Amino acid sequence: MACSSGSNTKMSNPNVSTPAMAVTPDAVDQKTSPVVFEIYGKIWSVQARLGQGVSASVYRVNSGRASSAVKEFQVDAQGGDYGYLKESSVLEKIQGHKNIVTLYGMFTNHNPFGVATHCLLLELLDVSVSELLVRVSNQGHSMWLIQHCARDVLEALSFLHRGGYVHADLKPRNILWSADDECFKLIDFGLSFKEGHQDVKYIQTDGYRAPEAELQNSLAQAGLESDSGCTTAVDLWSLGIILLEMFSGIKLKETVRSQEWKDNSSAIVDHIFSSNAVVYPAIPVFHLRDLIKSMLHNDPKLRSTAESALINPFFSIPFAPHIEDLVLLPTPVLRLLNVIDDNHLYNEDEYEDIIEDMKEECQKYGTVVSLLIPKENPGKGQVFVEYANAGDSKEAQRLLTGRTFDGKFVRDCKLAGRSMVIKTLHQEAVPKKAKGMTLLAIAREVGLL
């Protein structure tokens, strides 16, 4: 496979996660990074380096018709390819779950200096939970978003754990949002192992490391062996900390390292929840607090499993997304306000003309697959434009804000999820068959049109 070097496009999506990984994407280094990958006979151009760790770099690549991520592994100090073999082996065995990043294939890349590197071609995902935490610093996320993330991650862990696998590096940076599937997915399985066959001594990231993993790491640093390896319970501990951070809006690394936490973590969790109780309804707060506590027992045998956590009462409470949720997560759908006058909605000819005019204008910024303008509240007169992908919708958002349509100024142009839009407008569950349906088709299905 051919490869040359250079590029300087920027994009946001850290899709590699080692302790040394950069938090934000950067311009591609022209001296050390490829400008193209030849993958299965097709040329994919490198648009951005999304992240760089000790053992691998991740790039956003485009073939002209599709975008993906390439994770390129560096040759290790012993001249081997352990990291590549480890992650590719695990990913191959756990494919097929909607909440786990999709592996499209593996290939070898040859750079101009004759050095061969092994690469994974992966599904391109969007914003990470780590980035979401930065955006709501000290405020906390909505119950809808916390529940959505918790359920998606638990579904993935339940699938992994049934197969005997431990993720072993669950943290906010390794949970990414998929705009196309409108769900959270797990990435980075470089530390994963089969329960009972742990081949990595140092697992998990500081701040999300379970007590038994902390003990194991300490023993390893002292040159001692622990009596037994870690179990799937370490993943539940990590998720408990992540959910507590999403609820509080506070990074808890220093808190969980403190002696106070070691002495009585339950009291600290209670304090965090009592401090935020005014913001949230009491019953959901009670259930979420107990769910998190069930994951944070010091004794791994007492911790909730992924399957038992999924039947916690917290997941039986129906939450609707807030407007903030609709614009926080990248999606293929745009919502435009202040564009349509009410009198245009009730004249069928004018209504159809407006739809065609809007579609024609919006298609200048990407492929429009659907366009919806509700005639009644909620959502009356708002324009929902569904693009072929999240990249097109983000570019359209940038270019449409501040434009005028028929003399009306577009004062509000925001991203909004397809199913989230229907839930907000219709206040009922989206039909299960909605996956793959256009926004317009879903609207007809639920009786909005």
Labels describing this entry:
Alpha-Beta Plaits, disordered N terminus, 6-stranded antiparallel beta sheet, Phosphorylase Kinase, domain 1, 35% helix, alpha+beta, Transferase(Phosphotransferase), domain 1, 449 residues
Number of strand segments: 16
CATH superfamily of the largest domain: Transferase(Phosphotransferase) domain 1
Distance between the termini: 51 Å
Largest sheet: 6 strands, antiparallel
Protein name: U2AF homology motif (UHM) kinase 1
GO molecular function: ATP binding; protein serine/threonine kinase activity; ribonucleoprotein complex binding; RNA binding
GO cellular component, one term: neuronal ribonucleoprotein granule
Domain Protein kinase: 44-315
What's the arrangement of secondary structure elements?
Layout: E1 36-39, E2 42-52, E3 56-62, E4 67-73, H1 82-93, E5 103-110, E6 116-122, H2 129-135, H3 143-162, E7 165-166, E8 175-178, E9 183-186, E10 193-194, H4 211-221, H5 233-248, H6 253-257, H7 259-276, H8 282-295, H9 306-309, H10 323-328, E11 333-337, H11 342-345, H12 348-362, E12 368-372, E13 383-387, H13 390-400, E14 404-405, E15 408-409, E16 412-415, H14 418-426, H15 439-445
Antiparallel strand pairs: 1-2, 2-3, 3-4, 4-6, 5-6, 7-10, 8-9, 11-13, 11-16, 12-13, 14-15
Describe this protein's structure.
With 449 residues, the chain is an alpha+beta fold. It has three domains: 36-122, Phosphorylase Kinase, domain 1; 129-316, Transferase(Phosphotransferase), domain 1; 323-445, RRM (RNA recognition motif) domain (Alpha-Beta Plaits), CATH 3.30.70. 35% of the residues lie in helices and 18% in strands. The protein is built from 15 helices and 16 strands. It has helices spanning 82-93, 129-135, 143-162, 211-221, 233-248, 253-257, 259-276, 282-295, 306-309, 323-328, 342-345, 348-362, 390-400, 418-426, 439-445, and strands at 36-39, 42-52, 56-62, 67-73, 103-110, 116-122, 165-166, 175-178, 183-186, 193-194, 333-337, 368-372, 383-387, 404-405, 408-409, 412-415. Strands 1-2-3-4-6-5 form a six-stranded antiparallel beta sheet, with helices on one face. A hairpin with a 2-residue loop joins strand 14 (404-405) and strand 15 (408-409). It is flat, with a radius of gyration of 23 Å. Mean pLDDT is 81; it is low at 1-27 and 426-434. One of its GO terms (molecular function) is RNA binding. Residues 332-427 form the RRM domain.
